[in-house]
């Protein structure tokens, strides 16, 4: 059985701020081929699909499609704010290495 990814309270709180307009979209976290390390994360606002795993708290949703789920097993989705900017980040125990920007990884 695959462990689902976890979403931090900080990430859900940021989603609540983003969804202030109430458009009902959710944060989609997907894995695609590409990037400088072989795989890359695609993080965007999107509508749910039938085969999505939906992680939800206080009405905020994070979506992971069935193809990306094995790549994100046991990962933690968080939100960080630093001097260089704010962004959603993924701590992925399945990644053997990652690039400096944190958006691509190798398995």
UniProtKB/TrEMBL annotation:
PROSITE patterns recorded: HESB
Boundaries of every Core domain copy: 6-102
Family annotation (Gene3D superfamilies): HesB-like domain
Question: What are the GO MF terms of this UniProt record?
Answer: 2 iron, 2 sulfur cluster binding; 4 iron, 4 sulfur cluster binding; iron ion binding
What does UniProt list as this organism's lineage?
A: Bacteria, Pseudomonadati, Pseudomonadota, Alphaproteobacteria, Rhodobacterales
Mind telling me which SUPFAM superfamilies this protein's record contains? HesB-like domain
A GO biological process of this protein is: iron-sulfur cluster assembly
Which InterPro entries does the protein's record reference? ATAP (IPR016092), ATAP_core_dom (IPR000361), FeS_cluster_insertion_CS (IPR017870), HesB-like_dom_sf (IPR035903)
Name the record gives this protein = Iron-sulfur cluster assembly accessory protein
């Amino acid at each position: 059985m695959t462990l689902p990814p976890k979403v931090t309270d900080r990430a859900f709180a940021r989603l609540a701020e983003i969804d202030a307009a109430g458009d009902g979209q959710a944060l989609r976290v997907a894995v695609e081929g590409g990037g400088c390390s072989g795989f890359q994360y695609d993080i965007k606002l999107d509508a749910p699909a039938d085969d999505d795993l939906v992680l939800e708290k206080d009405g905020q949703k994070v979506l992971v499609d069935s193809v990306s789920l094995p790549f994100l097993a046991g990962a933690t989705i968080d939100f960080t704010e630093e001097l260089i900017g704010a962004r959603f980040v993924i701590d992925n125990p399945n990644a053997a290495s990652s690039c400096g920007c944190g958006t691509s990884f190798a398995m």
